[in-house]
């Protein structure tokens, strides 16, 4: 099981996407028309073979819009895990009483969005791609848009909560991965990434608060963030989400 995609939600899509592309050195690979069914538009950017998505409501009364109201603005929104045995993962979630809000079966991918009230923290999606290296959600030609001069991939996410250990234990039961304590946080290790659960300190409620990235040129990334005015209190913040880079 690996972390394959993270989604942010923004009131105004284009400026957030422009900031992400400029700071992270990535390009948009796809605008998925299918998200219109949820009252959204989006942009998906590959970072290596992982993906960063931004969604934005285009009509009132959307789940994403209500989430932004709760989080007091743009924020981290969804975590998509690629599973080795999706049917077993779906069965385990169902046995735990976790509701499904959306599910799909296609020739090259299957996916299940779990109810955020049951998972806590974020919308958690369990997906399986066929073949595993493919990723329909990024469009048919995403490999041509991969740029790794500045960033190489998504290393993890942090989810903030008033009860980070309790939330970590809930996710641990759902995805069948153990919780460990590290650096004052509870975390779940994936095959090539990590989900960290940290205390909520900014008054914005429970949710994805930080994106952890693997950087190939940290200095260039920091310079771009500074040039675009995206450094606040010594932190990079884009789309209401902190970005932490590792050399």
Could you name the CATH class of the largest domain? Alpha Beta
Helix content: 10-25%
Name the helix and strand elements from N-terminus to C-terminus, one letter apiece.
EHEEHEHEEHEEHEEEEHEEE
CATH fold label of the largest domain: 2,3-Dihydroxybiphenyl 1,2-Dioxygenase, domain 1
Number of strands: 15
Low-confidence sequence ranges: none
Helix count equals 6
Instruction: Indicate the structural class.
Output: alpha+beta
Strand order of the largest sheet: 9-10-11-8-12-15-14-13
Under the CATH scheme, the architecture of the largest domain is Roll
Please outline the major beta sheet: 8 strands, mixed
Which short descriptors sum up this protein?
2,3-Dihydroxybiphenyl 1,2-Dioxygenase, domain 1; 15 strands; seven-stranded mixed β-sheet; alpha+beta; 40% strand; 247 residues; eight-stranded mixed β-sheet
Give the SSE map.
Layout: E1 2-9, H1 13-24, E2 40-47, E3 50-57, H2 63-71, E4 75-82, H3 86-95, E5 100-105, E6 109-114, H4 116-119, E7 123-129, E8 151-161, H5 164-175, E9 179-182, E10 185-189, E11 194-199, E12 207-215, H6 218-227, E13 231-232, E14 235-238, E15 241-246
Parallel strand pairs: 1-3, 4-7, 8-11, 12-15
Antiparallel strand pairs: 1-4, 2-3, 5-6, 6-7, 8-12, 9-10, 10-11, 13-14, 14-15
